[in-house]
Amino acid sequence: MKYLSTVLAVTLVAISPVFGHHSDVALDLNSVVTLEGTVTEFSLRNPHTYFTVATTDENGIELEWTIQMASAITVSRRGWSRDSLSVGDQVSIGAHPARDGRSYGMLEWVERDDGVPLTYSIGSGSRRTADPSPTPTTSTLEGRWIV
Fold first, then answer.
1. Is 58 a residue whose pLDDT tops 70?
2. pLDDT score, position 123
3. How confident is the model at residue 106 (pLDDT cuts 50, 70, 90)?
């Protein structure tokens, strides 16, 4: 019984971080807003990387959007570094907006004003588009699959 209690305690401690992470339910993952503006902050950190963009809405009101990305290790694996964005960079971004109207979103794509897309998505990076009728290119399951 003592052994079972120890195993149970270790298991609960090991899985507790899973319950500590938040959901993305507050974001509208079915829409993407396009923004153009100036980077005012970029922080490559955990648990999420963030940057802020100063922009102007359709009524001429200045807004500062906070854009959420994945963890520092995840974005680093996708090719990002602390030098990927700098304060003052002009960018165009696509982000999934907050459902409550806040100037907050989760990054879908980003492109600097020099035309350089910064790969963020697992796929091709900037401005991913889905092929409405993909054509199979193989008749086997052999190979590297990215889902």
1. yes
2. 41
3. very high
Domain residue ranges of the chain, discontinuous segments joined by + = 33-118
Angle at 91 between CA 42 and CA 89, to 5 degrees: 55
Contact between residue 96 and residue 32 where contact means Cβ atoms under 8 Å apart? yes
Average pLDDT of the segment spanning 56-82: 92
CA-CA distance, 15 to 133, in Å (whole number)?
A: 40
6 φ, ψ (degrees, to nearest 5): -65, -45
The class of domain 33-118 in CATH terms is mainly beta
- Distance CA(41)–CA(72), nearest Å, equals 15
Say what the pLDDT of residue 20 is. Answer: 53
CB-hemisphere CA count at 13 Å for 118?
Answer: 26
Burial 78-116 (b: 16+ CB within 10 A, else e): bebeeebbeeebebbbbbbbbeeeebbbbbbbbbbeeee
Strand partners, 89: none
- Kindly compute the dihedral angle of the four CA atoms of residues 28, 115, 54, 125, in this order, to the nearest 10 degrees: 30
